[in-house]
Amino acid sequence: MTQSNHQTAPTQFVEANGIRFAYRRFGNPAGVPLVFNQHFTGTMDHWDPAVTDGFAMDREVILFNNAGVSSSSGEVPARIEKMGANAVAFIKALGLTKVDVLGFSIGGFVAQEIALQAPDLVRRLVLVGTGPRGGEGMATLTSEAQEIFGAAYDEPDHLWLRVHFTKSEKSQAAGREFLKRFRLRAENRDPEVNEKVAPAQIEAIGEWGAPREKPFEYLKSIRQPTLVVNGSRDVIIYSVNSFILQQHLPDAQLVLYPDANHGSQYQYPKRFVRHVSLFLSEEKAR
Fold first, then answer.
1. For the whole prediction, is pTM greater than 0.85?
2. C-alpha triplet 185, 91, 72: angle, nearest 5°
3. How far is CA 29 from CA 49, 61, 98, in A?
4. Which end of the chain has fewer CB atoms surrounding its CB within 10 Å, N or C?
């Protein structure tokens, strides 16, 4: 068991594809590592330590910034496929031959690409608050997302209360607890992303979500056991897209958390860690 945790793990660097990737790894080195892929404009410090440290009790956790994000060099590609290729290069640069992959929001698009491009590398897949190519309401940011990201906030972190949580009193209370955990790492935090990141990611999201013929056919090629997780009221990537993923992936199960928005895993961190850990620990589906 490594001594580091979410708050103390040092930022390390590895080069691949001409990119200097920033990453942190910590937790129990036994078994298959779990690689996290982050949401829109997020950095390694946007993960919830209740989630990452929860997983680190039983497995190694690997957080990283993809190309052009925060402390990683390079430029953010305007295509999800290229983001996926960069992520594969990063994982292989660490000398890993088998990983579990978790992707949240746009990171879920990237996680799907990792599984498509390097199927032998990925053992199991966890897709959180995300959707398929050409999914419902995914050609642009949803109207709710445009309003949320376009609004002004007295405290910048309060943006995440609206992105990740519903308006209910219970959900907002969970959000305030999340924000306390969100700032627990006081030293050596990742810098916020620069002004080039959001436009490139929005372009990539638009291309991924654009309508197309037989949009979900590609999902048949993702044969890894997959757990799809979302809130029942996700307004950033509509919850119906999680159902679409479950219906079209060959070996997928779906969990929807009640009265939860885009960040359901942050509203129910202990429940999320239990559910995902059970899924990752299964030998084979029975």
1. yes
2. 50
3. 18, 9, 13
4. C
